Amino acid sequence: MKTRLLLIALITAIAGMGTSLAACSSDDDNNNTGGDAGKDSSPQQDSGPGDDVTFSDVYDQVISQRCIGCHSTTFPDGGARNPSGGLVLKGKDIAYQNLINKEAPGGPCKPDPVTDAGTTWKLVEPNNVAKSLLHSKVSSDAPKCGARMPLTPQGGTPNPLNATQIKLIEDWIATGAKE
Asked: Is the terminal CB of the chain with fewer CB neighbours within 10 Å at N or C?
């Protein structure tokens, strides 16, 4: 019986050491240095969703890959074209200028008088995902105006972004739509 109790105590002590070692390694992972007993040992919280998202991230990971095929002033063969909806997104600087606090260039988007009373829709309204048409058009099968984007270049049918791409756009808008 004593041997069994001693074995249980030994296993408990070893398990406790593993927990202590894990806590030490997580402290190191959180860049805590030293062993100050007065430090808060609770896990560090993220500073918020998408705090580091910039327009460069959105442009490089989404717009340049999925949007400029239709929202450009030239066809892939170099011929001139009228971009879809009149919105030019080719070139990072041009795209940013054409999105921030701008009304839809293809015509005004009419807010629903009941659900959107007093709402003015912008393509991107910094810090306001709910009033940003870009987010509505890439995340909803029934956007506030027009069709869901992006469309397939060939057939003009919706070819939705994946959840990660939509979240990137959402986080960028929600955190101020930084350039």
From this structure: N
Q: Assess if residue 90 is contained within a domain.
A: yes
Query: 167 vs 41, 164, 172, CA distance in Å?
Result: 31, 5, 8
Domain annotation covers residue 40:
no
74-85 core/surface letters (b: 16 or more CB in 10 A; e: else): eeeeeeeeebbb
User: In the chain, which ranges are E strands?
Assistant: none
Q: What is the distance between the alpha carbons of residues 6 and 14, in angstroms, rounded to a whole number?
A: 12
Could you tell me the two tokens for 123?
């393509």
CA proximity to 178, closest of 103, 68, 99, 86: 99
Task: Calculate mean pLDDT across residues 2-25.
Answer: 37
Residue-wise pLDDT tens digits, 43-57: 344 445 556 899 999
Angstrom CA distances, 174 to 25, 53, 97, 124, 170, stand at: 33, 10, 18, 10, 6
As given in the structure block, the two tokens for residue 32 are 């805590």
Domain count for the chain, please give it.
1
Domain ranges, residue 66: 55-174
Q: Is residue 17 part of a domain?
A: no
| Contact call for residues 90 and 73 (beta carbons, < 8 A) | yes
**Is 156 part of a structural domain of the chain?**
yes
